[in-house]
Specification:
25 helices, globular, ABC transporter involved in vitamin B12 uptake, BtuC, 3% strand, 3 domains, 73% helix, two-stranded antiparallel ribbon
Length: 652
């Protein structure tokens, strides 16, 4: 398709109609984060649930030919999502408001796993295509071009919801309380406002908007499992790009993203200086490119405020590690002995179950046990790399899988094209990962909190798009296969010994660096930037060095990973991989390198066992995550701290 053949008006209208649907989902997430400061990863799951509920309600009431009944079922689906969202907030999220933002994020990710398997249990894994909305199933013709009536309806609905939300936020008491909580919820609590009720109401409203957006997709796309994970990335981008807590910013960013997608798809292939450029391929990554560019220019988003990230430092996840540890220590000292004993008992039961699990694993075939232990060792190296960056520098990355993917793909491509051996990859690839991290750190050091995390996610998604579409180099969606070490190291026990040796050496180096003068200087810059600056410490340079070192070790784990699997695909760069390694760090305990080691071993073994033995293993993993967050928020090392405090508190 050439530029002169494109109908600019209809391309614009197409983008505008798609922006309305995206805005419905993003507006709810904007409200939730603005008030509760919770990065609700389960938000898109309510979008998917709304679509499934609308399909079922329309089928049960046989309202496929009744516009009024169809609309009523759509609204009822949104109401059910709002009700379920309020219940989830009261049961699962309210107890973790006092914890750091990462624990809140993992609580919502656990809900994704639980609700996802619940949807599979209730509706099955098959795609479900609903009927068109009565009265809007035709098309409108203008200047010889037909355009779907339903798309025009969605085009009008987006601005209408924006206007209604503005009226609600600016001209009602509840809306004024929501706006006040967005900027200073501590002062709002001091004035006597019931924050718990406010949080529950906002969470219900946000989930209802997400469910409404999903229900309105019934005539457009089928309900299918995995829709939430494919939607949440775009939703996060819209919220962060527009500015956290800004409804107008959410609509503006949704409009820009969908218009950009529409024009790229319409332009197709263009010819520049004799080269053919397929612009339509940028559809997978254009929103992340836009996010990266905007955050470089305005680190707080298009319509966000620079002070928004500083208004609540205690809730931003950027408080110092030492202060967080002292707060947890005091929390356990002041807990009632009976409650502490009950929690310790429950955690010890879980530890006993883990011991039985480990015992049962030794009954598996010996070759598989060696393979599983190799996976554990590689995951441990990957987790310790991230824990080093999080604990020393206070840097949280939602896209840390970029570096294990980089190590795997660089090793595979060089082995396939240039015959690079395992030893050559082990020596050279970590330098490539470190060099990439050094360049990216120039973008990261200017950001903090959720903006830094989302920038890292954007970069990882750009890398995923490159390897997914570059068939000639990366193999595209099929990946690269046939990457194996030499005959001696192909023996599972021998390769495990090699991985264990390299992991042990890496842990020794990391331990030395974190206790060195350099490590203490980096931690000082993270814990107290103002004091470190007054002492003359180069904060940006030190944090860049930390990112470079962490990326080098993560890339090393990527080399070991690809040679253990023999194949690499774009799945290694997905956001779920990054969330898994964060879970490993928190499962063991963020304050300890050995905690990350234990977390990686335990999560890898548990996940492998659940996938084999439990039909709905994702829900089981989600329940395990919730137990961890509620009963052992500092992981295995925190559990050991609980036991010591409990034993010291016992009367002699």
């Amino acid at each position: 398709m050439h530029w002169q053949d494109v109908s600019f008006f209809w391309v614009f209208v197409t983008g505008l109609s798609q922006a309305g649907s995206l805005f419905l989902v993003a507006s709810g997430l904007t409200l939730i984060f603005g008030v509760t400061r919770v990065v609700n990863f389960s938000h898109a799951t309510f979008f998917m649930l709304g679509l499934y509920l609308a399909y079922t309600l329309v089928e049960l009431t046989q309202s496929a030919h009744d516009l009024l009944g169809y609309g009523a079922m759509v609204l009822l689906s949104a109401f059910i999502c709002a009700l379920l969202g309020s219940l989830c907030e009261r049961i699962f999220l309210r107890p973790v408001y006092r914890h750091a933002q990462l624990y809140q994020l993992l609580s919502t990710f656990a809900l994704v796993l639980i609700l996802g398997d619940a949807i599979v249990f209730l509706w099955g894994p098959e795609d479900l295509l609903g009927p068109r909305m009565p009265g809007l199933s035709g098309a409108v013709e203008f200047n010889g071009v037909k355009f779907p009536s339903y798309s025009l309806f969605m085009m009008v609905l987006g601005p209408l919801v924006l206007v209604l939300l503005r009226i609600f936020l600016h001209h009602t008491r509840a809306g004024l309380l929501i706006r006040a909580a967005t900027w200073d919820r501590e002062m709002l609590g001091a004035l006597g406002v019931n924050q718990r009720l406010l949080f529950t109401g906002v969470f219900a409203l946000g989930c209802g908007l997400s469910g409404l957006g999903g229900a309105l997709q019934l005539p457009v796309q089928p309900a299918h499992v995995g829709l939430d994970l494919s939607t949440i990335g775009d939703t996060f981008v819209v919220v962060v790009l527009g500015g956290l807590g800004s409804i107008e910013g959410a609509y503006l960013s949704a409009f820009l993203i969908e218009e950009l997608r529409a024009f790229l798809a319409a332009l197709g292939t263009v010819h520049v200086l004799g080269y053919s450029v397929v612009l339509s391929k940028l559809n997978l990554v254009c929103e992340f490119l836009l996010l990266a560019l905007v955050l470089i220019w305005r680190p707080w988003g298009l319509l966000g405020r620079a002070a928004a990230s500083e208004a609540h430092p205690s809730q931003s996840g950027q408080d110092t590690q030492q202060a967080r540890f002292e707060r947890v220590h005091l929390h356990h000292l002041t807990r009632k002995p009976g409650a502490t004993a009950w929690r310790i008992g429950l955690c010890l039961v879980g530890a006993a179950a883990l011991g039985l699990l480990l015992f049962s694993i030794w009954t598996w075939p010996e070759s598989y046990v060696w393979v599983l232990l190799t996976e554990c060792v590689i995951a441990a190296l990957f987790a310790v790399s991230l824990q080093f960056m999080m604990q020393v520098g206070g840097i949280v990355s939602f896209g840390f899988a970029l570096y294990i993917g980089l190590g795997a793909y660089v090793s595979a491509v060089c082995a396939q094209r240039f015959g690079l051996s395992l030893w050559g990859a082990l020596i050279g690839v970590p330098f490539v990962g470190g060099a990439l991290a050094w360049g990216l750190s120039m973008l990261y050091v200017r950001l903090s909190g959720i903006y830094l995390a989302m920038m890292s996610l954007a970069v990882a998604q750009i890398a995923w798009s490159i390897v997914y579409q570059w068939d000639d180099l990366s193999g595209g969606s099929n990946g690269i296969s046939g990457i194996w070490p030499s005959a001696f190291w192909s023996t599972p026990s021998h390769y495990f010994a090699l991985c264990l040796l390299l992991m042990s050496m890496s842990l020794g180096l990391i331990w030395q660096m974190r206790t060195s003068v350099w490590g203490l200087a980096v931690r000082a810059c993270a814990d107290s930037p103002i004091r470190a600056k007054s002492m003359g410490l180069p904060r940006n340079s030190l944090l860049s060095q930390l990112m470079m070192v962490s990326a080098a070790f993560a890339s090393l784990s990527g080399v070991l990973w690809v040679y253990s699997k023999g194949v690499v695909s774009p799945d290694v760069l997905e956001m779920q991989k990054s969330l898994e390694v964060i879970l490993m760090v928190l499962l063991g305990g963020i304050e300890s390198m050995f905690g990350a080691l234990l977390g990686a071993f335990s999560l890898t073994i548990i996940q492998d066992y659940l996938m084999i033995e439990v039909p709905y293993w994702r829900a089981a993993l989600g329940l395990l995550m919730l137990m961890l967050i509620h009963f052992a928020p500092n992981g295995w090392m925190g559990l050991w701290l609980k036991v010591k405090i409990f034993m010291k508190a016992r009367p002699s």
